[in-house]
Design brief:
Blueprint (H helix, E strand, L loop, with lengths): L10 H17 L3 H8 L13 E5 L20 H12 L6 E4 L1 H9 L7 E5 L21 H6 L4 E8 L6 H17 L3 E12 L2 E5 L2 H12 L8 E5 L5 H5 L6 E4 L7 H11 L5 E6 L1 H4 L6 H10 L2
Parallel strand pairs: 1-2, 1-9, 2-3, 3-4, 4-5, 5-7, 7-8, 8-9
Antiparallel strand pairs: 5-6
Helix pairs in contact: 2-4
Length: 303
């Protein structure tokens, strides 16, 4: 690698790290492939707790930069990398989910050694657009994920019964599940039943809607052997998770108004048999009180 194993640990380093990353990207872009090839892959999907703890950072590629009340919280890449590297320094945080630009920055920083890496695949349904449900695969594909030695790929599947764009997105997700399984890579599906209200796409978080989204997504592809689900916390989760035997991860969602209630809900979910861990992004990287260390410490303590 052409970058020392240095993580973005404080504000003083940020400017220097950005200059070094830009220098490598401009003068020796092949360093990205070299860093992926040299990365030590984890011996297991699970961390020391026996659960999987992934930090999600694929929001910016869909134009979703908000965290809490800050509409551009994730727009500063140096700050995002600083927070990500601090999170990945926790042994219990054993994975990251992101698009190529973010994953490659972290590779060049040496932050992904022995970590589970999940590449984000479809980011084409840009937030707030008329074509949001038409969630094109504009990120990683199965071949690139396997070639880079990553552990899997994640796809967002929003099912809007009134939007014809749902159909090609369903087909694209099914194809991605099959292609990942053929390479023995995890296919992580994040499904929702969705619809438009006041011009915005909104997800239906009733138990019945989540159950329906689970049963549809579980049946995608030529095999479900490598399919995992990424699911929201909703009411009556025991009944919701009874809809499938697929391994599931609980997503963090938006920055909560009541973090204590959110942590309590995660803790309850982690005791259920299909739940294999957490996939959390903004609620840990950009907590409402600004105390990232406290949020991370509380979350990993749940494991």
């Amino acid at each position: 690698m052409s970058v020392d194993d240095v993580l973005v640990v404080d504000d003083r380093d940020a400017g220097d790290v950005v200059r070094r990353l830009v220098g490598i990207r401009a003068s020796r872009p092949e360093a990205v492939v070299e860093a992926a090839a040299a990365r030590k892959r984890p011996a297991s999907l699970y961390g020391p707790s026996g659960k999987l703890m992934i930090i999600a950072a694929d929001h910016p590629a869909r134009g979703a930069l908000r965290a809490g009340s800050d509409a551009l919280a994730m727009a500063d890449r140096a700050e995002l990398l600083r927070r990500l590297s601090r999170a990945l320094a926790y042994p219990q945080v054993n994975g990251v989910l992101g698009t190529a630009d973010i994953i490659e920055d972290l590779l060049l920083l040496g932050a992904l050694e022995n970590k589970v890496v999940i590449g984000s695949m479809n980011r084409g349904g840009l937030a707030g657009t008329a074509f949001e449900i038409d969630d094109r695969f504009t990120g990683y594909d199965a071949r690139a994920i396997a070639d880079a030695g990553f552990e899997g790929g994640k796809m967002l599947l929003r099912i809007d019964p009134s939007d014809p764009a749902t159909s090609p997105t369903l087909q694209a997700c099914a194809d991605a599940v099959s292609a990942l399984a053929a390479r023995r890579r995890i296919a992580m599906i994040e499904p929702f039943m969705s619809g438009r209200s006041d011009g915005r796409v909104r997800n239906d978080l009733t138990p019945e809607a989540v159950i329906r989204s689970i049963t549809v997504s579980a049946g995608l592809g030529t095999t479900s052997a490598y399919t995992w689900l990424k699911l929201p916390v909703v009411a009556d989760m025991e009944r919701v998770l009874a809809a499938s035997t697929l391994p599931s991860l609980i997503l963090g969602g938006e920055v909560p108004d009541d973090p204590a209630a959110t942590y309590a809900a995660w803790e309850r979910m982690l005791s259920l048999p299909t739940v294999q861990g957490l996939v959390v992004g903004r609620s840990l990287l950009y907590p409402a009180d600004g105390d990232v260390e406290k949020a991370l410490g509380t979350a990993v303590g749940l494991l």
